[in-house]
Protein backbone atom coordinates (compact mmCIF):
# COMPACT_ATOMS: atom_id res chain seq x y z
CA UNK A 1 0.00 0.00 0.00
CA UNK A 2 1.37 3.48 -0.84
CA UNK A 3 1.48 5.95 2.02
CA UNK A 4 0.89 9.72 1.90
CA UNK A 5 3.90 12.04 1.83
CA UNK A 6 3.64 13.91 5.10
CA UNK A 7 4.47 17.63 5.31
CA UNK A 8 7.16 16.86 7.89
CA UNK A 9 8.58 20.35 8.33
CA UNK A 10 5.14 21.93 8.59
CA UNK A 11 4.10 19.40 11.24
CA UNK A 12 7.34 19.84 13.19
CA UNK A 13 6.91 23.63 13.03
CA UNK A 14 3.75 23.28 15.12
CA UNK A 15 6.04 22.39 18.05
CA UNK A 16 7.98 25.67 17.81
CA UNK A 17 9.24 27.69 19.61
CA UNK A 18 10.44 24.52 21.41
CA UNK A 19 13.44 23.63 19.21
CA UNK A 20 14.00 20.30 20.95
CA UNK A 21 10.46 19.13 20.07
CA UNK A 22 10.81 20.58 16.56
CA UNK A 23 13.91 18.49 15.81
CA UNK A 24 12.56 15.47 17.69
CA UNK A 25 9.33 15.40 15.67
CA UNK A 26 11.08 16.16 12.38
CA UNK A 27 13.51 13.26 12.88
CA UNK A 28 10.75 10.88 14.03
CA UNK A 29 8.65 11.74 10.96
CA UNK A 30 11.69 11.35 8.68
CA UNK A 31 13.01 8.06 10.08
CA UNK A 32 10.09 6.12 11.55
CA UNK A 33 7.69 4.64 8.95
CA UNK A 34 4.92 4.54 11.60
CA UNK A 35 3.59 8.03 10.97
CA UNK A 36 3.07 7.64 7.23
CA UNK A 37 1.55 4.18 7.67
CA UNK A 38 -0.75 4.72 10.66
CA UNK A 39 -3.35 7.13 9.14
CA UNK A 40 -4.27 4.62 6.41
CA UNK A 41 -4.98 1.98 9.04
CA UNK A 42 -8.03 3.98 10.22
CA UNK A 43 -10.24 2.83 7.42
CA UNK A 44 -13.56 4.33 8.44
CA UNK A 45 -13.88 8.04 7.74
CA UNK A 46 -16.03 8.91 10.75
CA UNK A 47 -15.18 6.75 13.78
CA UNK A 48 -13.56 8.84 16.56
CA UNK A 49 -9.99 7.91 17.52
CA UNK A 50 -8.74 7.40 21.09
CA UNK A 51 -4.92 7.60 21.06
CA UNK A 52 -3.60 5.73 24.13
CA UNK A 53 -0.14 6.90 25.29
CA UNK A 54 -0.27 9.64 22.64
CA UNK A 55 2.97 11.35 23.70
CA UNK A 56 3.16 14.75 21.98
CA UNK A 57 0.28 13.80 19.66
CA UNK A 58 2.13 13.26 16.37
CA UNK A 59 -0.61 10.89 15.20
CA UNK A 60 -3.17 13.73 15.24
CA UNK A 61 -1.04 15.84 12.86
CA UNK A 62 -0.46 12.87 10.56
CA UNK A 63 -4.17 12.03 10.47
CA UNK A 64 -5.07 15.60 9.58
CA UNK A 65 -2.27 15.89 7.00
CA UNK A 66 -3.60 12.71 5.38
CA UNK A 67 -7.11 14.14 5.12
CA UNK A 68 -8.55 12.08 7.99
CA UNK A 69 -10.54 14.58 10.03
CA UNK A 70 -11.64 12.06 12.62
CA UNK A 71 -12.58 13.34 16.09
CA UNK A 72 -9.50 12.69 18.23
CA UNK A 73 -8.72 12.30 21.94
CA UNK A 74 -5.09 11.69 23.01
CA UNK A 75 -4.24 10.56 26.55
CA UNK A 76 -0.87 10.14 28.22
CA UNK A 77 0.47 9.88 31.74
CA UNK A 78 3.16 12.51 31.04
CA UNK A 79 1.68 15.95 31.77
CA UNK A 80 4.60 17.77 30.09
CA UNK A 81 4.01 15.91 26.81
CA UNK A 82 0.26 16.58 27.02
CA UNK A 83 0.95 20.30 27.40
CA UNK A 84 3.25 20.19 24.33
CA UNK A 85 0.59 18.20 22.43
CA UNK A 86 -2.11 20.78 23.26
CA UNK A 87 0.07 23.69 22.18
CA UNK A 88 1.05 22.04 18.89
CA UNK A 89 -2.56 21.09 18.16
CA UNK A 90 -3.61 24.71 18.73
CA UNK A 91 -0.81 25.94 16.44
CA UNK A 92 -2.00 23.46 13.80
CA UNK A 93 -5.57 24.82 14.21
CA UNK A 94 -6.90 21.28 14.55
CA UNK A 95 -10.62 21.11 15.33
CA UNK A 96 -12.28 18.33 17.25
CA UNK A 97 -9.05 17.29 18.97
CA UNK A 98 -8.30 17.19 22.68
CA UNK A 99 -5.69 15.83 25.06
CA UNK A 100 -5.92 14.61 28.66
CA UNK A 101 -3.44 13.52 31.28
CA UNK A 102 -4.37 9.94 32.16
CA UNK A 103 -2.42 7.06 33.71
CA UNK A 104 -3.87 4.07 31.90
CA UNK A 105 -2.83 1.73 34.70
CA UNK A 106 -5.29 3.62 36.94
CA UNK A 107 -8.08 4.84 34.65
CA UNK A 108 -9.34 4.09 31.14
CA UNK A 109 -11.34 6.79 29.28
CA UNK A 110 -14.87 6.00 28.08
CA UNK A 111 -14.81 5.61 24.28
CA UNK A 112 -16.47 3.97 21.28
CA UNK A 113 -14.89 3.94 17.81
CA UNK A 114 -11.25 3.37 16.82
CA UNK A 115 -8.23 3.11 19.11
CA UNK A 116 -4.50 3.73 18.57
CA UNK A 117 -1.92 2.03 20.78
CA UNK A 118 1.39 3.05 19.28
CA UNK A 119 4.64 2.06 21.02
CA UNK A 120 3.06 1.83 24.46
CA UNK A 121 2.65 -1.86 25.33
CA UNK A 122 6.34 -2.38 26.08
CA UNK A 123 6.15 0.03 29.03
CA UNK A 124 3.65 -2.20 30.87
CA UNK A 125 4.26 -5.59 32.51
CA UNK A 126 2.66 -8.49 30.58
CA UNK A 127 -0.45 -8.82 32.82
CA UNK A 128 -1.11 -5.06 32.54
CA UNK A 129 -0.62 -5.29 28.74
CA UNK A 130 -3.42 -7.90 28.72
CA UNK A 131 -5.71 -5.61 30.72
CA UNK A 132 -5.03 -2.57 28.51
CA UNK A 133 -5.51 -4.63 25.37
CA UNK A 134 -8.88 -5.91 26.65
CA UNK A 135 -10.01 -2.37 27.54
CA UNK A 136 -8.90 -1.05 24.14
CA UNK A 137 -10.54 -3.94 22.26
CA UNK A 138 -13.85 -3.43 24.09
CA UNK A 139 -14.02 0.16 22.73
CA UNK A 140 -13.76 -0.88 19.09
CA UNK A 141 -17.03 -0.31 17.26
CA UNK A 142 -18.34 -2.36 14.33
CA UNK A 143 -16.69 0.00 11.84
CA UNK A 144 -13.68 0.92 14.01
CA UNK A 145 -10.11 -0.37 14.13
CA UNK A 146 -7.64 -1.04 16.90
CA UNK A 147 -4.27 0.02 15.49
CA UNK A 148 -1.26 -1.19 17.43
CA UNK A 149 2.42 -0.62 16.78
CA UNK A 150 4.64 -2.78 18.90
CA UNK A 151 7.88 -4.71 19.00
CA UNK A 152 7.30 -8.47 19.13
CA UNK A 153 9.19 -11.07 21.14
CA UNK A 154 10.22 -13.63 18.53
CA UNK A 155 13.83 -14.46 19.38
CA UNK A 156 15.19 -12.39 16.45
CA UNK A 157 18.17 -9.99 16.59
CA UNK A 158 15.71 -7.19 15.79
CA UNK A 159 13.68 -8.10 18.85
CA UNK A 160 16.79 -7.92 21.09
CA UNK A 161 17.80 -4.60 19.48
CA UNK A 162 14.32 -3.15 20.13
CA UNK A 163 14.42 -4.16 23.82
CA UNK A 164 17.95 -2.74 24.25
CA UNK A 165 16.96 0.60 22.64
CA UNK A 166 13.81 0.90 24.78
CA UNK A 167 15.96 0.32 27.90
CA UNK A 168 18.49 2.88 26.69
CA UNK A 169 15.69 5.41 26.03
CA UNK A 170 14.70 5.24 29.69
CA UNK A 171 18.28 5.29 30.91
CA UNK A 172 19.16 8.48 29.00
CA UNK A 173 15.88 10.13 30.01
CA UNK A 174 13.91 10.13 26.69
CA UNK A 175 11.25 8.01 28.35
CA UNK A 176 10.10 8.49 31.95
CA UNK A 177 8.65 4.97 32.03
CA UNK A 178 10.99 1.98 31.86
CA UNK A 179 10.80 -0.93 29.41
CA UNK A 180 8.87 -3.89 30.88
CA UNK A 181 8.10 -6.58 28.29
CA UNK A 182 7.47 -7.33 24.61
CA UNK A 183 4.36 -9.36 23.73
CA UNK A 184 4.56 -12.24 21.26
CA UNK A 185 2.41 -12.30 18.11
CA UNK A 186 0.59 -15.39 19.43
CA UNK A 187 -0.32 -13.71 22.75
CA UNK A 188 -1.48 -10.58 20.98
CA UNK A 189 -3.56 -12.44 18.38
CA UNK A 190 -5.20 -14.66 21.02
CA UNK A 191 -5.97 -11.68 23.30
CA UNK A 192 -7.63 -9.78 20.44
CA UNK A 193 -9.58 -12.84 19.31
CA UNK A 194 -11.07 -13.20 22.83
CA UNK A 195 -12.70 -9.79 22.22
CA UNK A 196 -14.00 -10.71 18.78
CA UNK A 197 -11.27 -8.89 16.82
CA UNK A 198 -9.41 -10.33 13.85
CA UNK A 199 -5.86 -9.00 13.50
CA UNK A 200 -3.57 -8.43 10.52
CA UNK A 201 0.19 -8.17 11.25
CA UNK A 202 2.60 -6.30 8.99
CA UNK A 203 6.31 -5.64 9.59
CA UNK A 204 6.97 -1.91 9.99
CA UNK A 205 10.65 -1.43 10.55
CA UNK A 206 11.49 0.53 7.38
CA UNK A 207 15.20 1.31 7.46
CA UNK A 208 15.43 0.96 11.24
CA UNK A 209 16.96 -2.08 12.98
CA UNK A 210 13.86 -2.61 15.17
CA UNK A 211 11.36 -5.46 15.24
CA UNK A 212 8.37 -3.16 14.89
CA UNK A 213 5.03 -4.41 13.61
CA UNK A 214 1.76 -2.71 12.68
CA UNK A 215 -1.24 -4.68 13.89
CA UNK A 216 -4.68 -3.68 12.64
CA UNK A 217 -7.56 -5.44 14.39
CA UNK A 218 -11.25 -5.14 13.59
CA UNK A 219 -14.54 -6.97 13.89
CA UNK A 220 -14.98 -9.52 11.10
C1 LIG B 1 7.27 5.72 22.89
S1 LIG B 1 6.06 6.84 23.42
C2 LIG B 1 4.88 6.72 22.09
C3 LIG B 1 4.15 8.01 21.87
C4 LIG B 1 3.13 8.00 20.72
N1 LIG B 1 2.15 6.92 20.88
C5 LIG B 1 3.80 7.90 19.38
O1 LIG B 1 3.84 6.79 18.83
O2 LIG B 1 4.31 8.91 18.87
C6 LIG B 1 5.20 5.94 24.70
C7 LIG B 1 4.20 6.80 25.45
O3 LIG B 1 3.46 5.97 26.36
C8 LIG B 1 3.19 6.76 27.51
N2 LIG B 1 2.83 5.87 28.63
C9 LIG B 1 3.60 4.93 29.23
N3 LIG B 1 2.94 4.37 30.27
C10 LIG B 1 1.70 4.96 30.30
C11 LIG B 1 0.55 4.83 31.15
N4 LIG B 1 0.54 3.98 32.17
N5 LIG B 1 -0.53 5.60 30.90
C12 LIG B 1 -0.53 6.49 29.86
N6 LIG B 1 0.53 6.67 29.03
C13 LIG B 1 1.63 5.92 29.25
C14 LIG B 1 4.49 7.51 27.74
O4 LIG B 1 4.34 8.64 28.58
C15 LIG B 1 4.88 7.87 26.30
O5 LIG B 1 4.42 9.16 25.92
UniProtKB/TrEMBL annotation:
Keyword Calcium (UniProt): no
Record-linked Pfam families: Methyltransf_23
GO aspect biological process, one term: methylation
Protein name: Class I SAM-dependent methyltransferase
Domain of life of the source: Bacteria
A molecular function GO annotation: methyltransferase activity
Keywords for the protein's UniProt record, in alphabetical order: Methyltransferase, Transferase
Coiled-coil ranges (or none): none
Amino acid sequence: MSHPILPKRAIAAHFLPDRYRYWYSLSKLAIDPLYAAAPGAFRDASEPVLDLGCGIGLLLHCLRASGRNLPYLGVDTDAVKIEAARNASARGCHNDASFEVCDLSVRFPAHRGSVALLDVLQYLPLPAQGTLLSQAAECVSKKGQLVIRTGLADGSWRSAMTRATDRLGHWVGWMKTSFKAQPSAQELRAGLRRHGLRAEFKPLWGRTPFNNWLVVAQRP
